[in-house]
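Troubleshooting: if your tokenizer reports a length mismatch, compare your output against this known-good record of 293 residues.
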Amino acid sequence: MPNWSEILDIVDNSTNTANVLKEMRIKYMRDICKITGRNIIAYYSGWMKKPDAPHVSIDEQDKNAFMSSVYKLDRKKGLDLILHTPGGDIAATESIVEYLKDMFDGNIRAFIPQLSMSAGTMMAMACKEIIMGKESSLGPIDPQMGGIACQTVKEEFERAVKDIKEHPSSLGLWQVIFSKYNPTFLLECENAVKWSEQLAKKWLKDANPKINVDNIIKVFLNHKDAFSHNRHFSFSDCKNAGLNVKALEDDQKLQEAVLSLHHCYMILLDKFLISKVVENQEGRAFVQTFNMR
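Known-good structure output:
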């Protein structure tokens, strides 16, 4: 299988870049299907190259894209979900996960060629198995609101209550700090944390009833220990936490096909104004484009 530079050379020397990339993606997806005997849906976001583009995060329109990709697939074969996403809206994530679980009777595996963060990690957790490589990472599932970690808001409020009780003169300082939040912000943050924890526990248990859910939650939903929402958890981190992860390197042919497919998507997202792609092995695709302003 060709590597990144070899695929890029083929694309750069072609007269129709879009068509060549499409043909290559379908070829590698079908190569993967021959190895696994399963369906494939690739879900790719262009956030790494175009972070300010619209729809790079998981959102409500993705449900329709997945419905289109599932259409006419032989669902008895199960689904391999190839994920590359920064995460996004938790309500949209819940809707997509429940839909896919219903369509494939829970027979879903997640492939993480590079990154599947935040709500993307939650999508992977809902799968019965997660296949990762040495270069792959998942991330913390602590929810964010307006770019602010909800757990941090809770911790800051608890610290304020303690500080004011011990040092009443600090009240004015804390009033200034909390004036930037609307009156219901703390409650919304608390509910978001509970929601993420509830969904993660349910999906983990549904996928693998014997899994150590409490330890996984401790690792992935603990902003205090992770320090940053952008923290990357490697294959070893995920395995040590208790997730049911398998090494992509265990099957050389599968690894080569998955990484070649990944390179095709990353080149596509680099060369075109595309923020998201949802595509199956039959070539049925949803492609979200955008215009530069």
